[in-house]
């Protein structure tokens, strides 16, 4: 119909990467659960293994989708003492992987060897439902799963079963299917699952930049000029 489309690329990489790391740390160190213990009176005398979680030092991190956000996540996790980075995707990205010494591996090997799995890939027919029963069954029982990409990359019923049955240790999601997630959804009943309301880009600076880009696209479109960021259909 000849309708021009503007968009706002490359503005939420840092904000989403920061949120991914925050979510990973919240899940692996059980921060929401621990905070609830303080509020609910569960904090009593010191106990050796109470509220213990999993640390990043000497761990293997698997990143599904080593694009801009995936690389930004790896860049932030590396100083925590991660021993090894694995990644998978549509093909090797040697230039992006070189900074972290990341190894390109099949999805099955990434699931089997990673202590932490972070999903930052695009949603495509190839990635839809990629993280399913078979994927979770290959993960370690001590592994932590984090998704900040798109909800449909994950089969949520299979994720629930994996968490409820102790196939994996914990999960953190910033994206779900549907959004908002119904308050009676089974995943919300689990202590080892932290779900956020899709706030990956939710910093004041990022949202302001997005707004300015959108406005400039609109003004250019109204003037019949090329948009600063126009989708070429």
UniProtKB/TrEMBL annotation:
Which GO CC annotations does the UniProt entry carry? cytosol
Presence of keyword Oxidoreductase: yes
Domain (D-isomer specific 2-hydroxyacid dehydrogenase catalytic) ranges: 1-231
Q: Which family does this protein fall into?
A: Belongs to the D-isomer specific 2-hydroxyacid dehydrogenase family.
- A single Gene Ontology molecular function, please? hydroxypyruvate reductase (NADH) activity
Q: Which SUPFAM superfamilies match?
A: NAD(P)-binding Rossmann-fold domains (SSF51735)
Q: Provide the gene name from the record.
A: Grhpr_0
Q: Which domain of life is it from?
A: Eukaryota
Protein keywords: Oxidoreductase
Q: Where is the D-isomer specific 2-hydroxyacid dehydrogenase NAD-binding domain?
A: 21-200
**Species lineage:** Eukaryota, Metazoa, Chordata, Craniata, Vertebrata
Task: State the protein's name.
Answer: Glyoxylate reductase/hydroxypyruvate reductase
């Amino acid at each position: 119909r000849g309708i021009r489309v503007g968009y706002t690329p490359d503005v939420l990489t840092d904000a989403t990467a920061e949120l991914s790391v925050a979510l990973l740390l919240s899940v692996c160190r059980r921060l929401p659960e621990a905070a609830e213990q303080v509020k609910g009176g569960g904090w009593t005398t010191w106990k050796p293994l109470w509220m213990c979680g999993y640390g990043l030092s000497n761990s293997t991190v698997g990143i599904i989708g080593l694009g801009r956000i995936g690389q930004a996540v790896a860049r932030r996790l590396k100083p925590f003492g991660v021993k090894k980075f694995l990644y998978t995707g549509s093909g090797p990205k040697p230039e992006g992987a070189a900074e972290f010494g990341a190894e390109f591996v099949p999805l099955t090997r990434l699931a089997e060897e990673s202590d932490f799995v972070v999903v930052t890939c695009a949603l495509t027919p190839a990635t839809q439902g990629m993280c399913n029963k078979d994927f979770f069954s290959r993960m370690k029982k001590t592994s932590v799963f984090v998704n900040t990409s798109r909800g449909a990359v994950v089969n949520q019923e299979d994720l629930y079963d994996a968490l409820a049955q102790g196939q994996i240790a914990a999960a953190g999601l910033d994206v779900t299917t549907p959004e908002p997630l119904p308050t009676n959804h089974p995943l919300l009943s689990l202590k080892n699952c932290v779900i956020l309301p899709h706030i990956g880009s939710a910093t004041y600076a990022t949202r302001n930049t997005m707004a300015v880009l959108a406005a400039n696209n609109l003004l250019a479109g109204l003037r019949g000029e090329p948009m600063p960021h126009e989708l070429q259909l």
